[in-house]
Amino acid sequence: KPHIVWLRRDLRLADQAAFHAAAALGPVIPVYVLDDETPRHRRMGAASRWWLHHSLEALAKELEAQGSRLILRRGKAADVLAALTQETGAGAIHALRHVEPWWRMAEKELAKAVDLRLYDGLYLLPPGSLRTGGGTPYKIFTPFKNALMDAIGDVDVLPAPKLSAPESWPVSDKLSDWALLPTKPDWAGGFHEAWTPGSAAALARMEAFKAILGPYRQDREMPSIDGTSRLSPHLHFGEVSPRQLWHAIAGMEGQGPGFFKAELIWRDYAANLVQQFPDYGARSYRDGYDDGLWRNPDTDDSAAADLAAWQQGRTGYPIVDAGMRQLWHTGWMHNRVRMIAASFLVKHLLIDWRQGEAWFWDTLVDADYPSNATNWQWVSGTGVDSNMFVRIMAPLSQSEKFDAGAYIRQWVPELAKLSDPYVHDPESFHCRPRDYPAPVIGHREGRERALAAYKAMKG
Ligand code: FAD
Predict the structure, then answer these.
(1) Model ipTM?
(2) What is the fold of 123-156+198-276?
(3) Where are any strands of DSSP class E within 120-263?
(4) Residue range 406-434: average pLDDT?
(5) Are β-strands 93-96 and 116-119 bridged in parallel, bridged antiparallel, or unpaired?
(6) Among 42, 190, 204, 333, whose CB has the most other CB atoms within 10 angstroms?
(7) Could you give the CA distance from residue 255 to residue 374 in angstroms, rounded to a whole number?
């Protein structure tokens, strides 16, 4: 009997327990189901679809090289897979366990119809497996990190299994029929320059990154330096597992590897929160914030204009605009700038973090439900562990502090001729070019409005 491997965001062969288990039992049918029904409004965004197309193409090639195939089907995953099990006479469906609430629902539903076998493998440790002394899952990052460091031990990874083909293959959709790529306008030109989706490229990126891991602790804060791994979309789609990365840097000493491990632990921490709080991306986890703190772009024209300026990178704050334009052109934004841009939306513009989260969901190639929600709630001060709302980042001094001049000149062509320090704050230096917008709100004014709104919310 053949065995089905159901793929979602685990598009790799090595260190993939579902493939491993299925291959040990018989011929394997690898299947990807494009499911826009189960996630509903959480269907994959446009940038993710671009990535998915190329990642599936890469995986299909890898499978074909060993005489296997990737079967593509479309529809509600639980129904499609139950039908495919009947059609192929498959013994069982094997899959990696996912933490997103809609995937947990689909897993539950499918398990009623077929023999569904779930394995861990998306995170360093299974979400929910680490417990406090009181037996509850962790809510706060630092104790979570300490517990994970204590628990993880030596990390082994599974090799890629040899797959045998079933006697006959079920029919497959054609990837090009899914229309995952943009047509008119084709906004993905910069994506091609920035990225090569697929496992082979992910591993090559990790190897290249090892060479710059030494100064990672400092360099990762500097948007003008290419000092981070840029592995986030590869990790999101599971082209490489975090355990493979952990394994790859085992034995490397120093602060660079240590800080990199801490970032991987943030990813696990986010999944651990969503495991406990499935609606973490849908509502603020501190009281009051969702009832009246925010300016509402649906009913307030000036809030709508501010939101559009933020999305388009036309706020008049160079560091924010550079970040938002990097996002639009490449589907990725530097972490330091994500924090500045997110804080600016939520505090200076007083717009609900869920508006920003939704924009990131559509435009990031690494859009990830747990990580996106956790970071937005962190920046906004609304999360179970987060910054305080009243600690308001000053975008212009952040820009100077993290030496973002070259980054701004790269992404905001209107400012390309301005040198430091003028480029950080052309308005105050009276050198704002005519084609660059004036700040949508002054820093002090924005700060005071946010603090006043917060005070009013607290009553
Ligand atoms: P590196 O510095 O090389 O870090 C290595 C890996 O660690 C990353 O690839 C990522 O998987 C993980 N990581 C690093 N920082 C974080 C973090 N703060 N939280 C969770 N995981 C982290 N990351 C996403 O993967 N998807 C998102 O949708 C996402 N949304 C974000 C929204 C906001 C408002 C902010 C402030 C951050 C968000 N991040 C998100 C986290 C972080 O910005 C990115 O993971 C990081 O910039 C990716 O670049 P890198 O791979 O070069 O990171």
Answers:
(1) 0.99
(2) 1.25.40
(3) none
(4) 98
(5) parallel
(6) 333
(7) 25
Residue extents of the structural domains in the chain: 3-120, 123-156+198-276, 301-458
HEC string for 150-191? HHHCCCCCCCCCCCCCCCCCCCCCCHHHHCCCCCCCCCCHHH
Is residue 388's pLDDT more than 90?
no
Q: Which of 154, 171, 143, 120 lies closest to 15, judged by CA?
A: 120
Residue pLDDT, tens place only, 137-177:
999 999 999 999 999 999 999 999 999 999 999 999 999 99
Name the CATH architecture for the domain at 3-120: 3-Layer(aba) Sandwich (3.40)
Q: What letter does residue 438 receive in the DSSP assignment?
A: P
Q: Write down the pLDDT at residue 184.
A: 80
Name the CATH superfamily housing domain 301-458.
Answer: DNA Cyclobutane Dipyrimidine Photolyase, subunit A, domain 3 (1.10.579.10)
Ligand 1, closest atom to CA 233? 25
Catalytic residue (choose from 6, 103, 376, 411): 376
Residue with tokens 């996002």: 327
Ligand 1 neighbours (beta carbon < 6 A): 220, 228-232, 235-236, 263-264, 266-267, 270, 335, 338-339, 342, 360, 364, 366-368, 371-372, 375-376, 379
Q: Which of 206, 220, 217 is nearest to 254 (CA)?
A: 217
Statement: residue 417 has pLDDT above 90: yes
Is residue 125 within 8 A of residue 264, CB to CB? The reply is no
- Known catalytic residue: 64? no
Is residue 333 within 8 Å of residue 411, measured between CB atoms?
no
